[in-house]
């Protein structure tokens, strides 16, 4: 079961809230940790799924929602709200396993509880050469009707020849 | 059949790992220079192959061979490159190179938090597992060459 992860994550957030005075710093730390996890997780994902390179952002969205979220969290978020240019979409999480037992107290109104996920997504995509902006725009923990992660494609990271090479 | 040697490069061209089994002729330059030369050539071949291909490709560059040896190339979407030189008798070994990535690199390097990515792999465990894996390949033979 994934309860071990859920509870461990809860303990981590609790500890960070004790260690840092304000929630912004906690958000930042969660994002940073997520990033560090993401850059490694992507290798595990590619090795296990044998998914190839994506050719557009729509394909990327499908892989994230239907393969990656399924593999690691056992859920399949829905993909909505495509921007006309096709460079932005939203992931709607019906049930976010990170928050199974959580109730946000009033004094943590700016805490983005599951912000680790944003870092994971950003880090993993950066390793496949996509710079992407990831953020929560809705959260059931904050009374919203759904949990929504907004993904915005920024640019393709070009690989370059190392310095001193001809 | 035989396996000559193996290179693993990261996306920035750093040689993460080099192993050698049956290599009778050395390059006559330092290993650092050899890695740079190898990576530079691979980089050029990738770009050459993608520009010259008359149709859209899925996998891109896979291998080349000379009169004496065959170079097999596998690249992951994250830019990790596994390069193995064998003799000419060895066929398509894409799955073998993928296994080196998924069972050895991912399990013993990526999942080891003390292994820094983007630098030469120091892990003894990884080296040993890789050596055992390659020696166990059906086309590995120390005699031939």
TrEMBL record, chain A:
Ranges in coiled-coil conformation: none
Gene3D superfamilies linked: Trafficking protein particle complex subunit 3 (3.30.1380.20)
Pfam families registered for this protein in UniProt: TRAPP (PF04051)
Chloroplast found in the keyword field: no
InterPro entries named among the record's database cross-references: Bet3 (IPR016721), NO_sig/Golgi_transp_ligand-bd (IPR024096), TRAPP_component (IPR007194)
GO cellular component terms attached to this protein's record: endoplasmic reticulum; Golgi apparatus; TRAPP complex
Keyword Endoplasmic reticulum (UniProt): yes
Keywords: Endoplasmic reticulum, ER-Golgi transport, Golgi apparatus, Lipoprotein, Palmitate, Transport
An example Gene Ontology biological process: Golgi vesicle transport
Subcellular location: Endoplasmic reticulum; Golgi apparatus, cis-Golgi network
Family: Belongs to the TRAPP small subunits family. BET3 subfamily.
Subunit description: Homodimer.
Function, as annotated: May play a role in vesicular transport from endoplasmic reticulum to Golgi.
Name assigned to this protein: Trafficking protein particle complex subunit
UniProt organism field: Varanus komodoensis (Komodo dragon)
From TrEMBL, chain B:
CC terms in the record's Gene Ontology section: endoplasmic reticulum; Golgi apparatus; TRAPP complex
Compartment(s) where it occurs, according to its Swiss-Prot or TrEMBL record: Endoplasmic reticulum; Golgi apparatus, cis-Golgi network
Keyword Endoplasmic reticulum applies: yes
Keyword match Transport: yes
Chief place of localization: endoplasmic reticulum
Keywords: Endoplasmic reticulum, ER-Golgi transport, Golgi apparatus, Transport
Domain of life where this protein originates: Eukaryota
Pfam families: Sybindin
GO BP annotations listed: endoplasmic reticulum to Golgi vesicle-mediated transport
Entry similarity comment: Belongs to the TRAPP small subunits family. BET5 subfamily.
Functional note: May play a role in vesicular transport from endoplasmic reticulum to Golgi.
Description of how the protein assembles with itself and partners: Part of the multisubunit transport protein particle (TRAPP) complex. The heterodimer TRAPPC6B-TRAPPC3 interacts with TRAPPC1 likely providing a core for TRAPP complex formation.
Protein name, UniProt field: Trafficking protein particle complex subunit
Organism, as annotated: Varanus komodoensis (Komodo dragon)
